[in-house]
């Protein structure tokens, strides 16, 4: 009887450790993906992010986080071919650090590398 209990205990322990390991790997992957889509640099000293209520920003549907784009106004941004449309890949963007840069059009501050507006055009 004691032998059966020990076997059951070891089997359950094996499954528990295996499950926890798989869950941990899954969570690690999720946080890596999330980290990839967040601006990683801090706002350059002395500069401020462009306000999304800035008239130019508003007129162009700009958001510091492209995921917040109004897709009813800009459905093309949701198309698969637009998935890499972020400020960091735009011809108007000049990188200041990993997370922030200057835009030639939306210029009342710095824009996030993960931002987007309807004036986006592919950097060559
Ligand atoms: S023009 Fe380009 S860099 Fe400027 S806000 Fe729009 S998408 Fe970003």
TrEMBL record:
InterPro entries: High_potential_FeS_prot (IPR000170), HIPIP_sf (IPR036369). GO terms for biological process: aerobic electron transport chain. Keywords: 4Fe-4S, Electron transport, Iron, Iron-sulfur, Metal-binding, Transport. Residues 44-124 form the High potential iron-sulfur proteins family profile domain. The keyword Iron-sulfur applies. GO terms for molecular function: 4 iron, 4 sulfur cluster binding; electron transfer activity; metal ion binding. PROSITE patterns: HIPIP. Pfam families: HIPIP (PF01355). Coiled coil: none annotated. Belongs to the high-potential iron-sulfur protein (HiPIP) family. Homodimer. Specific class of high-redox-potential 4Fe-4S ferredoxins. Functions in anaerobic electron transport in most purple and in some other photosynthetic bacteria and in at least one genus (Paracoccus) of halophilic, denitrifying bacteria. This is High-potential iron-sulfur protein. It comes from Leptospira vanthielii serovar Holland str. Waz Holland = ATCC 700522.
């Amino acid at each position: 009887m004691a032998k059966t209990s020990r076997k059951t205990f070891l089997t359950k322990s094996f499954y528990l450790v295996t499950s926890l390991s798989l869950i941990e790997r899954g969570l690690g992957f999720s946080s890596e993906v999330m980290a990839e889509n967040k601006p990683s640099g801090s706002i350059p000293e002395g500069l401020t992010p462009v306000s999304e209520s800035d008239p130019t920003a508003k007129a162009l549907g700009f958001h510091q986080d492209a995921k917040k784009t109004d897709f009813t106004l800009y459905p093309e941004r949701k198309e698969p071919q637009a998935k890499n449309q972020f400020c960091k890949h735009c011809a108007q963007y000049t990188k200041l650090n990993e997370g922030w840069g200057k835009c030639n059009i939306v210029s009342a501050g710095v824009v996030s590398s993960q931002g987007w507006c309807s004036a986006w055009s592919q950097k060559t």
